Amino acid sequence: MRKCILILGGLLVLIAANAAIYLRERQLASGTPVILALAPRDPRSLMQGDYMALAYALERDLGNPEQDGRLVLAPDAKGVAQLVRLDNGTPLSPGQLLVDYRLRQGRVRIGTDAWFFPEGKGDTYAAARYGEFRADGRGAVLLLRLLDEHFKPLGEP
To answer: Is 51 exposed, middle or buried (0-12, 13-18, 19+ CB in 10 A)?
Structure first.
């Protein structure tokens, strides 16, 4: 009996993990594209290897919110998402979308705050000016890749 419970528990963990991976892969493949301007950060961690710490220009526009919430964003003429307002439940206009933000250690966090890359490729990513995300329509965003000032993907063949 105990062996059966352990096997069933293990199967449930594997099913949950694979479902989460599948949902994220589907979001990356078919989510709504969102481009956010980056703000400069420190590009190296001795303990974690080469990575770029990410911050986003629109975080400055938020001021000091008191709790986690959602942003309403809309693309500008270049396609870069700009802050319209904090979500207050008002219906979205065409072209607008919701993106979750979190407060962590006094900082606003949108999506991920790091981009890891192969050792020695730091010069390639030093030109990053934008992050290209995929949004799921419910507020979650996943970082797909970094872009240069001309919106060209970095680090791709």
So the answer is: middle
